[in-house]
Description:
By secondary structure, this protein is mainly β. It has a domain at 16-112: Jelly Rolls. Helices cover 14% and strands 44% of the residues. It contains 3 helices and 10 strands, in the order E-E-E-E-E-E-E-E-H-E-H-E-H. The strands form 2 sheets. Strands 1, 2, 3, 5, 6, 7, 8 and 9 form an 8-stranded antiparallel sheet that branches. The chain has a two-stranded antiparallel ribbon with strand order 4-10. A hairpin with a 2-residue loop joins strand 5 (58-72) and strand 6. The radius of gyration is 15 Å and the shape is globular. The model has no long low-confidence stretch (mean pLDDT 92).
Amino acid sequence: MNPNSSTPDAPERQFVLGQGLQATILATAEETDGHLDLMDCVQPPGAATPLHMHTRYEERYWVISGSMRVWAGQDQVTMGPGDYYVIPTNVPHMVRFGPEGARALVFSSPAGFAQLVARAGTPAHLATTETELDTELFMAVTTELGDVVLGPPGTTPAELAEPPH
């Protein structure tokens, strides 16, 4: 994609994952020689990611509005507007979004997460209130990109480490 041919509000840069994440891709791997990608992401109130880790890129959050709580390895961090947090590669993590949801800039370095959103998401202009996440496609793409899903949404790294009852 030519960086001068598409603006962030262009339909080909706007995606949804299921009924949760709304993402606008601001910078792609192609535009940054693979160094990073950047997205403007909005999550609804109370949404949570699956427990997962990235084996090929680190993830960075900068909160614009709302709040979010990050469980990353042994860390538990509550973030609000202006807060920034880095999740290194190979660290199990989960994010839960606050009662008002959250809007954050999400960077991955080297680039990777925006590709997952673009390939497994639904173009925003095609999404409806009934749009569901294509779990099979999501898992295929996430695995190809080196991401590992470790537990369902809301599972924290500490719960992963607990012995079974």
